[in-house]
Amino acid sequence: MDTIWQPDVLDTSGLKYKAVMLVIRDQIAKGTLPPGEKLPPVRDLAWKLGITPGTVARAYTMLTDDGTLIAEVGRGTFVAKPDAKTPLLAELPIEVDSTPHNSERQSDQVNLFSPHLPHVGQAALIRNLLGEVAADPPSGMMHYPTRAGARPAREAAKAWLAGAPLGSFDADDIQLTHGGQNAILLVLQALLRGRRPAVLVEELAYPGFRRAAELLRADVIPVAMDADGVIPEALETAIKTHDAQIFCTSPEVHNPTLGFTPEPRRADLVDVIRRHDLQILEDDCYRLGAAQAPSYRMLAPERSWYISSISKSVTPALRLGIVVTPKGRTSVLRRTAEYSFFGLATPMTDLAAKLLVHPELSSIMERARREIGAYVHRAVNVLGSYDLVWRADVPFLWLRLPEGWRAGAFVQAAEAQGVRIRAAEEYACREARAPHSVRFAVNAGVGLDDFEAAIMRLRTLLDNPPESIGV
User: Fold this and answer.
1) Which of 121, 379, 381, 455 is least surrounded, with the fewest CB atoms within 10 Å of its CB?
2) pLDDT at 410
3) CA geometry: angle 440, 442, 445, nearest 5 deg
4) Could you tell me if 10 and 56 lie in one domain?
5) What stretches of 93-146 show up as alpha helix (H) in DSSP?
6) What are the beta bridge partners of residue 174?
7) pLDDT confidence of 266, banded at 50, 70, 90?
């Protein structure tokens, strides 16, 4: 049967994952792959066919979704039996986390500070993969982490990023980190030079940019924005005024406003940045759907550092971040990581190598996106009459408060009602003015009805402002 899996059986004139699907379907129809037959592991088949693990994983996932194959966690992927009824993704039960998602662990508080993903199968999958790693750790248990030892994890990360418009890159251009925030800090550590370097950020920006820069004693300079993102002329002025060395941005899903920077504006910003020889740090951790424009890594591959993580799409518990470096610049980031912590723990890289290319993962992520969309729509149904910005595939919303409201007082009033949200001030530099707006996130650790009830409490506050707030 091994002749089934030879490279010359693939029709490589089209999409390779579809070619793999055709071979499997053809062999099932001929009876060469009978019902109940176990298919090769993703990595083994990819090696035999000379293609990427991500290609094989996608073919397995598509065939599992349509019922041709059946995936059993911890056992592998099998040809479905004629009477086997593989449950559709939408029919799988949703687990609700019984632990309140807040630091005080108070059940009467609904914490909407940060997104909390729904349980849609990822916890069970990770538990099983952890068991496999514990039983037979590919990297062993008695060695320091090495870059060579982590290569399977970097290959898996490359496959996981296959849908992102990043331009040409390979596993050698990837550095794995302890989550997205650690990735930001490492990039800044690797790049900043001089006594008082300046880091440029959007005038409202993810606070992690500012905190990482301040740890490195860098000045943080906000740059004015409009509806399309940072204004090129404002960026050029900031570069000329300060010892600017890097521009930190979130162009696909701007945090906190959900803004998007279209390709023409990105191209204009790249022109400014190239003229002044800056670096670009692009944080893409919040994008759950397809990208709408080429990344800076594609537009300016010689100077762009792309960051992603699994925290918003799979789980934040594993603290797995990914940096795709500019071509030829990986060594500087690798040295920074090795000098800081030697590398990720080998059980973590062994787990990542399995998880990121697992045939069930894409289905799990798609269901998580759908469940997040359900929570978002509950919030929109309640607050839609106010100035609310939202996207169905983004796990937070941005609310511009009606005239007369103050963000800080509104946040305090919301917390008194058991709902914790963030004021716009948290995303602004210390001396900058912030709009009277708030951000609140999807907390799928509570049921939909409980989440909607929390949003209703916000609606009640908006509809009935106390005199101390509505001034």
Assistant:
1) 381
2) 95
3) 130
4) yes
5) 122-135
6) 324
7) very high
- Rounded CA-CA distance 250/216 in Å is 21
302 Cβ neighbours under 8 A, 6+ residues apart:
326, 327
Distance CA 273, CA 247 (A): 8
Residues 225-264: tens digit of each pLDDT: 999 999 999 999 999 999 899 999 999 999 999 999 999 9
- The fraction of the chain above a pLDDT of 90, given in percent, is 72
Tell whether 97 is covered by a domain.
no
Tell me: the pLDDT tens digits for 398-433? 999 998 789 999 999 999 999 999 999 999 988 788
Give CA angle at 298 (273, 283), nearest 5°.
75
For residue 429, being part of any structural domain is answered with yes
Distance CA 243, CA 37 (A): 63
> Rounded CA gap, 440 and 443, in Å?
9
Q: What is the CATH number of the domain that holds 77?
A: 1.10.10.10
Average pLDDT rounded to a whole number, residues 26-31: 85
Indicate the helix (H) or strand (E) that contains 299: helix 296-299
Task: Report pLDDT for 177.
Answer: 97
- CA diameter of the chain: 78
Report CA-CA distances (Å) from 256 to 27, 395, 436.
Answer: 50, 11, 13
Question: Who's near 288: CB < 8 A, 6+ residues apart?
Answer: 312, 313, 365, 368, 369, 372, 393, 394, 395
The tally of domains found in the chain comes to 3
Out of 323, 355, 387, a domain closes at 355
Per the structure, the complete domain to which residue 40 belongs is given by 2-86
What CATH number does residue 450 fall under?
3.90.1150.10
Considering the domain architecture, whether residues 264 and 232 belong to the same structural domain is answered as yes
- Looking at per-residue pLDDT, the higher value among 26 and 461 belongs to 461
Three-class SS state of 70: strand
**Claim to verify: residue 318 and residue 427 sit in the same structural domain:** no
